[in-house]
Amino acid sequence: MDLRDLFGYLFILAGLLQLLTAYLIFAGQRHYVLRFANRKVGSIIYVIFAFVLFYLAYYFLV
């Protein structure tokens, strides 16, 4: 396994965890981002982070 493949898989896993965090924030779970933004904006921030991580995974796996 190449190091680029490992980074790609790690970025996929991190993106999935970011999506899970976005869902939990939207569902009402307390999180530190809620001190700065409301529930919808916090979820959108984490979804954007997830898409950035998925893009990085695509970059490293292709």
Automatic annotation (TrEMBL):
| Transmembrane parts of this sequence | 6-29, 41-61
Q: Which domain of life is it from?
A: Bacteria
Which UniProt keywords are listed? Membrane, Transmembrane, Transmembrane helix
| Record's protein name | Uncharacterized protein
Upper lineage: Bacteria, Pseudomonadati, Bacteroidota, Chitinophagia, Chitinophagales
